[in-house]
């Protein structure tokens, strides 16, 4: 078990039971795909964030625990829906060492089950009955969609700037981390400064997490990653390791990377991996991730000191120290 999960182990188990329960559908294919994705071994960091944040801010025995579990499940359904849609857009075939839903069942079922999970999340939100939380999550799903479209626009464009890239990963990844923490703070009845601190924690954690993901695409192990190394390059995604390398490598190396991005080609993957390592691009990306992890931990100073906030600090360190 991951150490940061220990303080909320019972709540996490209850959330998982609720997720399975809410996957029910009269259409067998919906349940089959839903269970396949949910059972595929993800870390479930976003629902864990809900549970840790709510408990850190005093969500106690005087409140109905099922509401916290519902919020955690809602966050996981939104995240899972985005994964289903992402894999179709990216034409991905592997995720978490298994065939993606689109590779196994086809694009149309994957997209439609993603829609089912989105709508189930909003059914559960209505039942939760909090307009502030509904406002946060409706806005967040809109921001995530914008991030996906912007990433599509950026694909095969070697002139994407670091600022543009950071804006995309905030929308694609950071926004849901933020929403998980802010919504949990509201559910716990936290005051405005604590809600803002929770949001800042989620923001910086999400950015750190995505930066490490993008670095691992050039240094990770395919078996541990559960996907093919070089997938980002195959899709023509100009992530931070490539953006930095194009600024600091020699002209011939810059041209090699530029052509690979433009063509979405992994023909020169081995050479490009060597370039991003030799020019310090991976070190730069990891340092940027560490900076955001530190900012996330700094935000915790504005929350109560307890076993839950300690677990959140541990989670921030895990986000940057992991190898998959």
Automatic annotation (TrEMBL):
The keyword Ribosomal protein does not apply. One of its GO terms (molecular function) is all-trans-octaprenyl-diphosphate synthase activity. Its cofactor is Mg(2+). GO terms for biological process: isoprenoid biosynthetic process. Coiled coil: none annotated. Signal peptide: none annotated. Its EC number is 2.5.1.90. SUPFAM superfamilies: Terpenoid synthases (SSF48576). This is Octaprenyl diphosphate synthase. It comes from the Bacteria. Keywords: Magnesium, Metal-binding, Transferase. It catalyses: 5 isopentenyl diphosphate + (2E,6E)-farnesyl diphosphate = all-trans-octaprenyl diphosphate + 5 diphosphate. Belongs to the FPP/GGPP synthase family. It is an enzyme of class 2 (transferase). The keyword Transferase applies. Supplies octaprenyl diphosphate, the precursor for the side chain of the isoprenoid quinones ubiquinone and menaquinone. CDD domains: Trans_IPPS_HT. Gene3D superfamilies: Farnesyl Diphosphate Synthase.
